[in-house]
Design brief:
The chain is of the alpha+beta class and 79 residues long. It has a single domain, classed as Alpha-Beta Plaits, CATH 3.30.70. Helices cover 25% and strands 38% of the residues. A hairpin with a 6-residue loop joins strand 2 and strand 3. The protein is globular and about 35 Å long. 15% of the residues are buried.
Length: 79
């Protein structure tokens, strides 16, 4: 399994519509609206790299998404 965070830059005023579309993507485990360089971050878990690429392509096709950055989780720690 591969888990990753996908950072999403949204066009002004498009955040609610993007979040609505993200809810339709089964592999998304969590969605957070954030401040800073990006507007939304999602956590996904998939079976392989191709499926991760497919999800990233799906997110990039959502109206209002300007840019994404995908960060694969190498190791997750509990504190």
């Amino acid at each position: 399994m591969i888990s990753a965070y996908i950072m999403i830059l949204a066009a002004p005023g498009s955040g609610n519509g993007i979040v609505k579309e993200l809810r339709k993507i089964e592999q998304i485990e969590n969605t957070a609206v954030i401040t800073g360089e990006y507007d939304i971050v999602v956590r996904v878990t998939v079976d392989n790299v191709q499926k991760l690429a497919d999800i990233t392509d799906t997110i990039n096709a959502i109206k209002g998404v300007s840019k994404t950055h995908t960060h694969v989780i190498m190791r997750e720690l509990r504190v």
